[in-house]
Specification:
It is globular, with a radius of gyration of 18 Å. It contains 7 helices and 7 strands; from the N terminus they run H-H-E-H-E-E-H-E-E-H-H-E-E-H. 45% of the residues lie in helices and 22% in strands. Helix 1 runs antiparallel to helix 2 (18-46) and helix 4 runs antiparallel to helix 6 (165-175). With 207 residues, it is an alpha+beta fold.
């Protein structure tokens, strides 16, 4: 419906601002991506299936952020990347890992809305056993009581949140053989790190 509306506008009026058509294209792409995510998650929970393909993780990070940081600059959020240059390609389900990066980045941007210092940094690094992806903000941090149950289903600090975002992120990362952790200090920000084990990735491709 969004794409059809976009086409009708484009063909019937020369006065439509290009940005409107651009945003409608993005909305249509997001709707399509949401459908793919739901199908992947159903496979993950019902049959444990994933569509594993060799992927340039740095490129996937950039692709994910292209959507996640939309509107961030207007909110005064400064986004920085520190991507390692020695990363091998890894076998992952692109849609699932993209969703993890997207969720973490959007959560960080929301946490920064009322902060004086608004900085979001995303980094990748290779360790002997894994690739680590870190998403770090300069937000208010997490109270201790919230940090303890952060990844539990239906636990949320948002007035309108369902409390499933981080729980789904953990399920996705763990299904890839990795782990996700959060460290936070009150008033100094929060850092999420998830790993993708290199051995697990290589074995999945060999299989």
């Amino acid at each position: 419906y969004v794409q059809t509306s976009r086409d009708v506008l484009a063909s019937n009026s020369a006065n439509i601002p290009p940005k409107v058509l651009e945003f409608m294209d993005k909305a249509a792409a997001q709707a399509d991506r949401a459908g793919k995510i739901i199908r992947r998650l159903r496979q993950l929970y019902e049959r444990g299936e994933s569509e594993m393909v060799l992927t340039d993780l740095n490129a996937l990070v950039k692709e994910s952020l292209g959507l996640a940081v939309l509107g961030a600059s207007e909110k005064g959020v400064k986004v920085s990347l520190d991507l390692a240059t020695d990363l091998p390609q890894v076998a992952i389900d692109r849609i699932q890992i993209q969703q993890v990066i997207f969720n973490l980045a959007r959560n960080a941007i929301e946490a920064l809305e009322k902060c004086e210092r608004r900085e979001l940094s995303i980094s990748t690094v290779r360790t002997p056993e894994a690739i680590e992806v870190a998403v770090e903000d300069t937000g208010p941090g997490l109270p201790e009581e919230i940090a303890q149950t952060l990844f539990d289903p239906f636990h949320t600090t948002k007035a309108t949140g369902m409390g499933l975002g981080l729980s789904i992120c953990r399920s996705i990362v763990e299904s890839h053989g990795g782990r996700i952790v959060a460290t936070s200090r009150s008033g100094e920000g929060t850092r999420f790190v998830f790993t993708l084990p290199l051995d697990t990735q290589e074995q999945s491709i060999d299989a």
